[in-house]
Amino acid sequence: MIVSGEDARAAFLVRQGLTLDPAWRSVHEAIVQIGAVQIDTIAVVARSHHLTLRHRVQSYDGEQLWMALRKRELFEYYVHGNSFIPIEGFPYIKHCMQRFPTHGYKWLRNTIPQYQDIMEKIRLRIQDEGPLTSRDLKDSKHQSRGWWDWKPAKKAIELLWWMGHIVVVDRIGFERVYDVTERGVPSKHLDKLVST
Q1: pTM: predicted TM-score of the whole model, two decimal places
Q2: Which end of the chain has a smaller Cβ tally under 10 Å, C or N?
């Protein structure tokens, strides 16, 4: 079957929710349909994840995105860019998390041995105390010299996230709130097995 360029374009616009005004009733419904929404750290007019959803979700306001994250309808992970992904996709990303120590970004995975002890302390603290932010992990000895000069606890919490030991369950402002994966992902998605 040959599909014309015009038909392909029309199908793409429908799939992406760009032909109706707006196409979906909820953030979860929109992100399930389009697959993922990349998180934008820079705002000129507004952060692009909000612009993406504002044109696809009926009566959208930014709080709907955070509510979907809190309700465990979405999770956050790095798929080409840091993105919000429907929670139904967690089983398909879990293998990437599990393989991170051997297949993740070499410059980052090579730091795992250096931060192993602090990673375990942070994971246990989150397990015992509940959701925490990087800011909750105080380090009075570290004096930051710039944007990427993270304190050891921030590096450790990021490694835990990359490996899937913790997940983002909320954001305060734009700061991530982490919890252990067993509490942050509903068991029907956490335990689901898929072939890789």
Answers
A1: 0.86
A2: N
